Amino acid sequence: MPILAKTIVEYLGIPENYSEHGGSVDHLIDLVHWFMLALFVGWTAFFLFACWKFWRKRNPKASYHGVQNHVTTHLEVGVAIFEAVLLLGFAFPLWAERTDRFEDIQAQDPVRARVIGYQFGWNYHYPGADGKFGRIDRHLIQQAGDPCIDPEDPNGWDDFVSPILKLPVGEPAILQITATDVIHGYAIVPMRIQQDAIPGTDIPMWFRPLKELETSVVCAQLCGEGHGDMVGIMEVISKGAFTSWAKEQSTAAYARNSKKAAEVSSAAGENDASDEAVESTLSSGEKTEETEESAGGEGSE
Ligand SMILES: [Cu+2]
């Protein structure tokens, strides 16, 4: 069966598997396709047999008795049993394994990234050196594909955004899939994973790449006129190379964002100071209390 399995998956043109769980996905694809092939051959043979057997020249007069045996019933029951075996014996256990292991994977300190789909591309938001994602506020969106990190949350200062997905080989990864405009479908075929990217939600999925490679990431959901060009890059690299890349990106992001935050807060400080100056000017008049109540706005009268 494994030899046959290989030929079917290869015959379908599915790229080689590079992930830990991908073998069982291929096995299921293989089983389903052999079953469909058997059904195709079986039903086609039955159809041709029926055409020949009930040809009008052979049966000028209709039979009022119909089929006298139960062969077709037995065949139908056989197909139903086989389908039940496929579902209960293969598909459900595979799905259960994917979901049951999620907690275990979370405990293994996986690499995390948020995947943001947009018309027409993918962005990756890494949590940076502290391992914590900054607060996400989707109202802060500036442009399509924006990860919407709240600049006021210090946890987000070392977060960095990359247009390429980089992951270390052999380490589990959890990707949280989302989108900023319409529904996309995030798919990495050599990793045998796919997940709809839905605006407003972060949906996690996990896998473990087993070999280094550079491959493409595609959109599996017709999402607009540029859908076909929505191809991204994924690089699975050595752990050392990944760590130094992530560190470099995170350090640069922290320097940039903390500086920006400092500028914003000092600008706010200046504003406060000028507000105070205005207030003190006004309070030298008669309306001291009212003006203080509406500090920051215009005078109440
Ligand atoms: Cu898309």
Characteristic terms for this protein:
about 300 residues, alpha+beta, Immunoglobulin-like, five-stranded mixed β-sheet, 6 helices, disordered C terminus, binds copper (II) ion
Bound molecules: copper (II) ion
Compute the number of helices.
6
Named CATH topology of the largest domain: Immunoglobulin-like
> Could you tell me the mean pLDDT?
84
Q: Strand order across the biggest sheet?
A: 3-2-1-5-8
Shape: elongated
The major β-sheet equals:
5 strands, mixed
Helix content: 40-55%
The beta-strand count equals 10
What is the top-level CATH class of the largest domain?
Answer: Mainly Beta
Describe this structure in words.
The longest helix has 45 residues, at 239-283. The chain has two domains: 2-54 and 70-100, no CATH class; 110-251, Sandwich (Immunoglobulin-like). It has a five-stranded mixed β-sheet with strand order 3-2-1-5-8. A five-stranded mixed β-sheet has the order 4-10-9-6-7, covered by helices on one side. The chain has helices spanning 2-11, 22-53, 71-100, 102-107, 239-283, 288-293; strands spanning 111-118, 121-126, 160-162, 164-168, 173-179, 184-188, 193-197, 203-207, 213-219, 232-237. The protein is α+β, with helices and mostly antiparallel strands. Strand 1 (111-118) and strand 2 form a beta hairpin. Helix 1 (2-11) crosses helix 2 (22-53) and helix 2 (22-53) packs antiparallel against helix 3 (71-100). The chain is elongated. Helix content is 43%, strand content 19%. The chain starts with a helix and ends in an 8-residue tail after the last helix. Residues 117, 184, 219, 221, 223, 227, 230 line the site of copper (II) ion.
